Predict the 3D structure of the following.
Amino acid sequence: MTALVPKSCARALLNRKAEEIDNLSDTGELRWVFDVAQQGAIRRCPRYWLKEIQSPNSVRGLDFAAAFALMVPLAMRSRLATEEVVALLCSSRPSVWYMITKGEVRAEKDEAGRYWIEKASLYAWLQSRWINGR
């Protein structure tokens, strides 16, 4: 999986100030930016696609479906383990648990007590959080 990274990582890799990163996002120069903040949050919690930061031309013309397939290249699987979603979003287990308990994504619990998030619901959730896709 190709991770999404927080602003601090984007700043370090691009050698830019926070305000410059915000401007790149707001103008669409950084196109693949997602707000992973919990519903009702006052502040945005942006995540930047690492692949775009490292190789912008390789992802510039992609639509959301193609980008998601590169971010989550588990074509044969219809579900992702909670830990995989935590890693993808560069988030915390409590944040992903919040997504599950608030019904933002659909998940099933297996016999071992592990939650599996439906890939289709993660697709819809991430698409709704795409800042430059609105």
